[in-house]
Amino acid sequence: MKTYKIAVIPGDGIGGEVMTEGIKVLDCYASLKGNIKFAYETFPWGCEYYLKTGKMMDDDGLEKLKKFDAILLGAVGFPNVPDHISLHGLLINIRQSFNQYINLRPVKLLPGAPCPLKGKGPQDIDFVVVRENVEGEYSGVGGIRFPDKPEEIALQTSVFTRKNTEKVMEYAFQLAEERNGKRKLTNVTKSNALNYSMVFWDKIFNETALKHQDIQTETIHVDAITMYFIQKPEAYDVLVASNLFGDIITDLGAALQGGLGFAASGNLNPEGEYPSMFEPVHGSAPVLAGKGVANPIAMVWTVKMMLDFLLKVEADEIITAVTQLLQEGESLTPDLGGTATTQEVGDAICGKLAKLI
Amino acid sequence: MKTYKIAVIPGDGIGGEVMTEGIKVLDCYASLKGNIKFAYETFPWGCEYYLKTGKMMDDDGLEKLKKFDAILLGAVGFPNVPDHISLHGLLINIRQSFNQYINLRPVKLLPGAPCPLKGKGPQDIDFVVVRENVEGEYSGVGGIRFPDKPEEIALQTSVFTRKNTEKVMEYAFQLAEERNGKRKLTNVTKSNALNYSMVFWDKIFNETALKHQDIQTETIHVDAITMYFIQKPEAYDVLVASNLFGDIITDLGAALQGGLGFAASGNLNPEGEYPSMFEPVHGSAPVLAGKGVANPIAMVWTVKMMLDFLLKVEADEIITAVTQLLQEGESLTPDLGGTATTQEVGDAICGKLAKLI
Ligand SMILES: CC(C)[C@H](C(=O)O)[C@@H](O)C(=O)O
Ligand SMILES: CC(C)[C@H](C(=O)O)[C@@H](O)C(=O)O
């Protein structure tokens, strides 16, 4: 029996409610499989904590988190706390300090999930975005000169290193090889306008491609890709994108797969030198908080990604269980046209799992 | 009789073919109205010119262009010429040198145009994006340190000035006031991650909002807006975005309005210290070039934007003519399911105009 230690950060708003269901599904999965166990420790960090203590997480927070096998995050964000404080203080801090240089985001339309596009279905929308996650546009480098004067200037510098970019590209090519897909990797760029960073990015992509000649490659500008996602999502299998571009196209991807209620992500340190962190892409949605109406599917999908990563499995039973729920149409939250509570959805998924495992 | 001097840069690929139809429609419009005339001078600049001369445009190109009332551009780009060369040498050079600090892009689904979204129609998709067009992410500031060494680093710096940002915001608020719409302005940001440039951007937005309290405002992150464009395009009226974000969301917008065949733009110097430049958003599409199949509607719409700007009119007859074509379904190019040539579409639009003006 192997026990995995999970650091749980429910965070703000609906974070805690969906987290409860995520853990419920983890525990059901573990007890049905029989040979694994999860031990949790919960950290009360986030914006409420900040309003009380002036800190998004404890000073030795990273030290504490380091001991865990993985981190599960609910959602961070609160109306009274400026986003750039809450995020640089917790989410972006953990991503960068733990060198979680890959942000993996599947975009997959499940049968029964609402698709906004005419004439497209689950067979057309099934790709994964490999997003660079520790540098690039999110490096936090910059400044303001002559603040509030007429000659005020704001500077923000993207920083891309060869070392990290090579690792991201290599990861993406290997994923394209391992995935049972089109064996195709799409490079998302904007080298026609960003004449240093993205020209560099393309160069590393092309260098890495030479080592993976079995993978079909293409390079597409980020503006064009947003259009193609609408017009021909079936053209994509694995995409590799910078931190900012990956952020943008995965929110668009979330819309294609039925909304943020379905968007899961993993912030990975593939070598395991530090714990990886798993989080649903939806935010804290303060207006929904405390009502028991938040859709926990993204969190449950996130848990599946954690299982895949930690146990080196494909915990596809979880996706099957969610698909069954969608197809039956009962046990769905209001955003999906149902009347179930967050908790009832979690219970229903466990019920399905019990028959599938 | 007033004569307007137009500099014509057909450019590469399909640029010349659609330009011919654009000019045809301009001339019909002028002769039907009776009191205006256009005088053209054509410049052979672009990638073919570059391959012959090593230059995208003449050394004194800007000097030459300066004398015109406006510039009409077809498309620039060619497989053999790296994009960052062709664009920084011509398109981006003209935008920045002529201080065309506004890039205006209407996103409007015409009745009869193909919409990719379920349950949305022309009444839902009708907004305009005000894109900053001379600085920001496109400033071209940056460099590579330790080229090709393991420690190689690429830097790209976004530069935002208060002076220009204030002008862009002011323009956007005024447009929201003048437009017969929802009197709403949406600020597109990413201040949760870009902790200097976009925090600054939001600050100037909020300052400018104080002078326009009659306009409803909201601030939305660029990732989220791509999702909302799919889920609720009807929520938008005027949006203001940085150079890069405006680029991305207007390509997505183009998809919503039926594709690049419908996407027009104006690069404006509102004060008229320099000529403004009008261009369809589609590229040079080398594979379609020379076949007479390119859809000229985006170019014709671009001409309408030039008329609006130069003559201070609303040349809506042109949009009505295009809508009639779409609704009748004849005289459309193959991308819209028709069999007409580029030239036949131009002729048909002029035919309609003759009945409308
Ligand atoms: C909250 C924000 C900083 C974050 C990001 O931009 O990475 C979020 O949008 C995401 O996609 O995880
Ligand atoms: C060609 C490219 C540099 C340009 C841009 O990014 O501005 C284009 O995409 C546009 O939208 O006009």
From TrEMBL, chains A, B:
Pfam families: Iso_dh (PF00180). The keyword Mitochondrion does not apply. Its cofactor is Mn(2+); Mg(2+). This is D-malate dehydrogenase (decarboxylating). Belongs to the isocitrate and isopropylmalate dehydrogenases family. Keywords: Manganese, Metal-binding, NAD, Oxidoreductase. It catalyses: (R)-malate + NAD(+) = pyruvate + CO2 + NADH. PROSITE patterns: IDH_IMDH (PS00470). GO terms for molecular function: D-malate dehydrogenase (decarboxylating) (NAD+) activity; magnesium ion binding; NAD binding. Residues 5-349 form the Isopropylmalate dehydrogenase-like domain. It comes from the Bacteria. Its EC number is 1.1.1.83.
